Amino acid sequence: MRRPTSAAAQQEVPAEPAGPLVPEALASWEEQFTRWIAEARASGADPNDIGDREWGTDRLDHALEAYYVPAARGARVIELGPGSGRLTRHLIGIVEHLTLLDLSDLVCTWIDEYLSGRDNYEVHRITGADAPMVPTNSANAVFAHGVIEHLDPDQIYWFFREFHRILVPGGRVVFNFDNATSQGGLEHLANSSGPRWRSVFRFHAPAAIVALAGASGFEARVDEFPDRIAFGLLTRR
């Protein structure tokens, strides 16, 4: 694995391929989650403590206090892409109900084990940008941390459409993404890609995120920072 040189980009990215450009060579996050789980079991730690140390530049610590926890208290929440549970573990004790959606069988199995003993959650595997098992107008908030930064605009649009269906009027969507217009974002783009290979991250201009949200029935604002991370804050009309 090749590690970016920028201090603002700590997540690992694939090594540069020797052959022709591979258009979609996304990293296997399952490999990293499995390693965290194995290391934590060997030491008696929480795997998400390891994850926070390795992926600590994604502003989760800031977002918990500023966005996620206030919107989650006593609410019915959807989390898209929980991964190993870095955000999930902060939500499960304060929500009324938590619905977890992920593309990965490994993640769905792990998160069910991780939350063993809790009775206020459910886990579903999805196969695209829709979640037909989730009823219309059934959630107060949707969170996606570390997810939108791996999606192209068309995928984001259809997820936004689905979030609009799922949320009650006035419901919130909160997510981070890689900012294509900040200095840190541009450094991250350069350090995580090359002339013959793509970054595993997708970089979006804040105005594009706002436009996609508006086309999907949301009022939107973006909170920007000098580093690579920005946050989309959407409210369902």
Structural write-up:
By secondary structure, the protein is of the alpha/beta class. The protein has one domain (56-236): Vaccinia Virus protein VP39 (Rossmann fold). Helix content is 35%, strand content 22%. The protein has helices spanning 29-43, 47-54, 60-72, 88-91, 105-114, 153-166, 183-191, 206-215, and strands at 76-80, 97-102, 121-125, 139-144, 167-179, 203-204, 218-224, 229-236. Strand 4 (139-144), helix 6 and strand 5 form a beta-alpha-beta unit. Helix 1 crosses helix 2 (47-54). The longest helix is centred in the first third of the chain and has 15 residues, at 29-43. The chain starts with 28 loop residues before the first helix and ends with a strand.
Provide the domain count: 1
Overall morphology: globular
Which fold does the CATH topology refer to? Rossmann fold
Q: What's the CATH class label?
A: Alpha Beta
Rg is 17 Å
Which percent band covers the strand fraction? 15-25%
Spans with pLDDT under 50 lasting ≥5 residues?
A: 1-10, 17-27
Compute the separation of the termini in Å. Answer: 43 Å
Question: How do the strands and helices of this protein lay out in sequence?
Answer:
Blueprint: H1 29-43, H2 47-54, H3 60-72, E1 76-80, H4 88-91, E2 97-102, H5 105-114, E3 121-125, E4 139-144, H6 153-166, E5 167-179, H7 183-191, E6 203-204, H8 206-215, E7 218-224, E8 229-236
Parallel strand pairs: 1-2, 1-4, 2-3, 4-5, 5-6
Antiparallel strand pairs: 5-8, 7-8
